[in-house]
Structures are given as C-alpha cells and as structure tokens.
Amino acid sequence: MTARLIDGKAYAREIEIQVGAQVAERLRQGFPPPKLAVIRIGEHPSSVIYVENKRKACRRVGIEADLLVLPETVDAPSLAALIKRLNADETVDGILLQLPLPASLDEATFIEKIDPAKDVDGIHPMNLGRLAARAPGLRPCTSRGVIHLLRRIGESFYGRHAVVVGASNLVGRPMALELLLAGATVTICHRFTRDLADQVARAEILVVAVGQPRLIPGEWIAPGATVIDVGINRGKEGLIGDVDFPTSRERAAYITPVPGGVGPMTVAILLDNTLTAAVARLRDRPTDP
Question: Are residues 214 and 252 in the same domain?
C-alpha cells in the first residue's frame, strides 16, 4: 500500500477562490474590504516569513492586511495598549498576534486581551469554549483546516477512532474538539501518555502536532489509516514533519506531506475567518433609529 497524498495547496486554493469571490461581491455592494491587523514582535526569521506569507494570501483575495511591527524589547503595557486600540478601531475586522512572543510576554495574557469577535486565530478562551460547547464561532485555523482536508477526501467520522498526538491549546486540544464535533471517538495523547505506540496503532484517523521531528515511525501506523502531520521542523534536509513520511506512506491510506499539507490550509482558514469576522461585524453593527 502506498498512501495517497492530501494536497493541502490545492484545497487551500479552493478556499482562496471562494473567499476572493465573496470579497469582490462585498466591494460591488459598496462595502469596504475586510481588514486584518497583524502584530509582529521582533525580526525572528520564521515569524517574518510566516507573516509575509499570510499578508500575500490576504492580497490575493482582496483582504487588507496592515502590519504593525514592535521591537523585541516591547513591554507588556505597550502591547496591551496596541491591542486595546485595535479592538476599538471600527475599521479593523480581525487581529492576528503572531506567535511565539518573546519570553518576557505571557502569550495567554495577550490572547485574552483580543476581542473574541476579532480573534481570527480562533484561540481566545471564549472561542475555544464555544467550540467545546458545540456552538462554534471563530474556530482555530489549523484544526478547522484539518477537518476541511478530511472532509475533502471523503473521510467518514462517525464511529471512527481518531488519535491526536499533542495537547497544546493552539492545535491539539481544539483538534480533539473538532473531531468530537464531527462525530469521531477521540483519544488525546500527551507527554504523560503510556505506550504511545499502542495508542497510535489504534488510530483510524491520526493527527500529530508535537513539533518533534519523526516522532511517529511508520511501523506504528495502522494499515489503511489517515495520517495528518501538523508538525513543521527544520532539519538538514529541509522541512520535515512529526511523522516519518517515507515509512508511514507505505502503511497509510492517506497522508499529508510536509510542507504542502496542513500549512497552506491554516493560512486559507485565516482568510475565511477574517471574512467571517467582517461579515459578522457588519451584521451586528447598530443602525440609526
């Protein structure tokens, strides 16, 4: 068996086309384009690249993306003041705080300061809580992107056993919630899990999001499983995932490549979330009596 590749670039492009068409229609109706404010702290090369890729994607679909760059030495009050200003700015539909932050700044504190209605990353506690309560609003980009990929390949969730390796607030936990919402039976594995190999072998749908190169060897994969590799790690041979791709591809039915799998979908869902936030803000805006 050789797994079929799940082409995240192609499916992300589909979403971009849909978002671009809706933005164009908004413009024809006389509404302004959606506007995203991107906060980047410092000049870390990876953050610079990620932010620029997101801004390029915004330009492709007609979304305005303003970049606000703060120095690595920015203090907490200054960052809080900027977020407060953007929350109050009626021209801003979405706010993206590029992570990770410098060690001197607590990420959770500043994520909570973003207006949940403008939280296009979908990771504010209120948005995560709505997902847990089966009443999703803005949803975390990566986990929602994974669900989209699984639906596009015709994945059947009901009664399927899904295993999520990694329990971070950014990916692992929301991924488990999304799979539950879709109807799968979910196991979450983390650093205290015993016999990870046995858990992985039970997975009909496997999602790995740890950030550890080749953590999952191919011999652990159940024959015919669907494998989603969220990890992006820089090695001597370039970007590699959390799953050993060559050996896993010989056992899985479907597998995402790294790069070109989940990454493009994360950006595409960011665009869709920004449009969703813009539409909701226009809908909820008070009208003159």
Answer: yes
pLDDT in tens, 262-285: 999 999 999 999 999 999 988 877
214/233 Cα distance (integer angstroms)? 9
Q: Is 22 a catalytic residue?
A: no
Determine the structural domain holding residue 107 and report its residue range. Answer: 29-115
Number of domains present in the structure of the chain: 2
Q: ∠117-44-65 over CA atoms, to 5°?
A: 35
Give catalytic status of residue 236 as yes or no.
Answer: no
Whole-model pTM: value is: 0.95
Catalytic residue among 35, 54, 113, 118: 54
Closest by CA position to 169, among listed 127, 219, 212: 127
Secondary structure of residue 154 in the 3-state scheme: coil
In a domain, 277, yes or no: no
* pLDDT for res 286: 60
> Based on the domain organization, do 146 and 61 belong to the same domain?
no
Residue environment code for 68-90, b if the CB has 16+ CB neighbours within 10 A, otherwise e: eebeeebeeeebeebbeebbeee
CATH code, domain carrying 94: 3.40.50.10860
- Shared domain for 111 and 154, answered yes or no, is no
171 & 249 share domain: yes
Q: 121, 229, 242, 244: which one is catalytic?
A: 121
Q: Which of 22, 35, 93, 98 is catalytic?
A: 98
